[in-house]
Amino acid sequence: xxxxRDPMTRKRAxxxxxxxxxxxxxxxxxxxxxxxWYGSVPIPRSLRAQFGDVRLVRSLKTDSLEEVNEAKWxxxxxxxxxxxxxxxxxxxxxxxxxxxxxxxxxxxxSVEPGDDDALLLAVESRLESxxxxxxxxxxxxxxxxxxxxxTLEEAATSWIAAxxxxxTRGSRRSVVDxxxxxxxxx
Length: 186
Prior knowledge:
Blueprint: H1 15-19, E1 20-26, E2 32-42, H2 48-51, E3 55-59, H3 65-90, H4 95-110, H5 117-134, H6 136-147, H7 152-161, H8 166-185
Antiparallel strand pairs: 1-2, 2-3
Helix pairs in contact: 3-7, 4-5, 4-6, 5-6, 7-8
């Protein structure tokens, strides 16, 4: 995981600071009337023009820190998935083929191993028709997205969220952070 540095204090921002924002609502006199937590993900500079902003933000619809800790990771994963999809579109994969890749991927993820022979043949046939119609490079891109099963980030987010206990989720996040740091050094 990347930790952003605050240029004023030269300290690393925590993951909580990176991905969570709180807005306080004040009355006309300036007294705080309520607050709401938001999931927030920075948009890479290369995609900011496409989104028209520097961050993707989505309300977690709560002011409870306990509820935020339950709800934040799926929201963050969704926001990151939107950025990943925009990155693929920016790389040249038309939206129709991106949608096709998502459908194929969902189908491949929904079938049990061992029961997937017919589906794999259907996916292969579909990829061949994409190659004929759109070119081999486009078909390869669709195949990589469809057969990529899950990105490491998506798999890690699902694994973390699968636990009922916050302490277990925290431990799992630590394991994922160590793995990510190890992979970056290679």
